[in-house]
């Protein structure tokens, strides 16, 4: 049996393309021979550290993104809807607390299952329900929906603002930057001791080719249903 190839997904719930990348790789993880590692990172830190700026700050890109995302939503069957005030949601409210919370979920669990569920609930809140993801009450609601117990949530609410979680998120974001990130999502495939880095949710064909797998969007989009 061939050993599983490690694939890291760096993502931030404030990034709609991260949601697409997240859902697509979650579908493929069920059919590809990969060991998927979630790496919750902070997009603001990636932008700052790489000297880039969000495409939402360039008017033409922002307009194009709106159309592009609507088409992708339909194609990939991910229920993305634009919040009423995207700029306020992305830049004013931001995702720092949510990403620290996810860091804590992953740290506490030492695995992926709960991180996947809580990430999905946070993506849904921001990109489908137009709900807050900054307040402790909002994080707690997402965790309840993800199936976490009352005692787990209580522990997480104590943990996520700790210096340890702040440092962990900072170091994950630095890992993304060290791989050359200038935006998210970032997928890193480890093949023959080499890291192959892909930016965006639109590089799955190339990624599959690189790790010796195949893509089939129509078939695989049914997998998580
Ligand atoms: N073409 C990529 C675009 C991804 C993208 O625009 N991501 C945003 C965050 S939502 C970003 O970090 N952009 C940086 C840049 O475009 O320079 C895709 O389809 O996923």
Automatic annotation (TrEMBL):
Molecular-function GO terms, alphabetical: glutathione peroxidase activity; glutathione transferase activity
EC code(s) of this entry: 2.5.1.18
Keywords: Transferase
CDD domains on file: DsbA_GSTK
Residues of the DSBA-like thioredoxin domain: 6-209
An annotated GO cellular component: mitochondrion
InterPro entries in the cross-refs: DSBA-like_thioredoxin_dom, GST_Kappa/NadH, GSTK, HCCAis_GSTk, Thioredoxin-like_sf
GO BP term (any one): glutathione metabolic process
Enzyme superclass (EC): transferase
Keyword Lipid metabolism: no
Residue stretches in coiled coil: none
UniProt similarity note: Belongs to the GST superfamily. Kappa family.
Record's protein name: Glutathione S-transferase kappa
Annotated source species: Mastacembelus armatus
